[in-house]
Amino acid sequence: MEAPKREGSLSPPPSKKRKFESTTTKKAVANFFTPASKKEPEKTVWAVINEGLLIARYNPAKEANGTPTKRRKIAAFDLDSTLIQTSSGNVFAKDPTDWRWWHPSVPSVLKQLHADGFAIAVLTNQGSVAIKENPKTIKVDQRSLAAFKSRVTSIFSHFDFPLTLLAACARDLYRKPRTGMWTELLEDLGLDEGDGPDLQCSFFVGDAGGRAARKGAKADHACSDRDLASNVGIGFKTPEEYFLHEEPLPFTRIFEPKTFLNPTLTTSTDTTPIVFEKRNALDIVLLCGSPGSGKSTFYWTKLKPLGYERINQDTLKTRDRCVRIASNLLAEKAPVAIDNTNADPETRAVWVQLAQKFGVPIRCVHFTASIKLCEHNDTVRALTNSTFNPEKRTILPHSAFAGFAARFREPQLKEGFHDVVTEEFQFRGSDEQRRIWSQYWI
C-alpha cells in the first residue's frame, strides 16, 4: 500500500523504565515447578514502559538459530472495531471472552501478510486499562488489566507467527494520533534511521477515520487512526476498505493545524514582533483567553521587554495573593500584566477596580484562538521538549478548556478598559518546531 514519504516521527519518547511480566495462569504456576529442560516457553511476554504503554510480544515458536531477518514492511492495525468486535454487541467488552473477529477473513488476511514478509502489529488506545496508580484517586484496578491481558492472549492464540501489540493507557506521547507507539514499535523491530521501515509499503488500518454517519453505521468517534498514519507517513485504510474492499468515504478532521501556518512567514529567520505598543508610563495589561491560546508567549516576547511584571495565578496559587503582589508593584510604579484566563466580566472586574484604586489605565488583550487550537497547543507544549515548554507545564484535562468556554464572555470597553486589543494566534518557530507543531496531536 503506497503512501508519500515523510520525515520520521517525533523525537523519541522519554527514557524508558520497563517492567517485564508474563501472563499468570494456573498452567504457568504449575510450570514453575517443572524442571527447566521440560518447561514450555511463555508465548506472550508483557512489558510496561513509562507507566503509560503496555506491550505484548507474542512468539509461539522458538526462534531459529541466528539473528532473524528484519521485516521492514509493517502492517499495523487498531484492535477494537478493526480486528475484533464484541460478541455481545456492547460498545465495550463485558468480560475477556466477549469478542469475535470483525470479519471472518481477519485471521487468514493476517496470516497471508506474515507470509508476504510483513511484521504484524496492533496499535490501540486503551484508556480504561489502568497500569499506573494515581495517588489522587484510587489504586490501580487490576481487574481491567487482567481482563485485557486475557483477551489479548486469547486473540493471539489463533496465530502461529509473531505479533506485537502496543496499548496506550494514558494521555501521553504514546496515545494515537501521537507517534510514541510507532517509535517504540520501530525500536522493538530493530528498525532505526540507518535501516528503517519501508514507509511506501507499510500501512495502518483503523476505524477512527473521521467518517460521518452513514447507512447502518454511526459516525466515527475520532480521526485519530487516520491522523497517526499521516503523522508517520504511511498509508491508511478503514476496516471496510481493507477487509471488505469498499470504496473510501469522505472524512473530516476536528482540527487541521496546517491551516494556522502562514506560508508568507519564513520559519528559521522570521523575527516579526507581535504588534503591541506601550501607551502609558504606568498601567495594567490584562490578558484574556483560553489556556494554550498564547498568553504567556505574548507576555515573554512582548510585555516583559517593555518592563511589565507578570502576575500569574498558576504560580502564585490564589487570586488574593495575585491582587496583593500586583498592588505592591503598582505602588512601586511598576506596570503589571495579568497573565490569567480572565474569562468573564466578574473576574475581570477585580482588576478594573484595582486600576481605578491606583488611578491607572487598564488595557485588555483578547486572544481569539479556538478551543481545539488551544488543546493542540497545550498538548504539543506538554509532550515535547523544553523549546515548546520552558515552564515544564503538564498536559491539562479537557475540563480546563470546556470550563473556560462555558464561562467566557467577550471583553467589552464598557467594563472599564482603556482599549481592547485582539490577538489572533499565529505560529512562529524554527523549521523543526514547525514540523512537530503541524502534526496531529489531538
TrEMBL record:
Coiled-coil boundaries: none
Taxonomic superkingdom: Eukaryota
One matching Pfam family: PNK3P
Region (Disordered): 1-24
PANTHER family attached to this UniProt entry: BIFUNCTIONAL POLYNUCLEOTIDE PHOSPHATASE/KINASE, BIFUNCTIONAL POLYNUCLEOTIDE PHOSPHATASE_KINASE
UniProt name for this protein: PNK3P-domain-containing protein
Source organism of this protein record: Stereocaulon virgatum
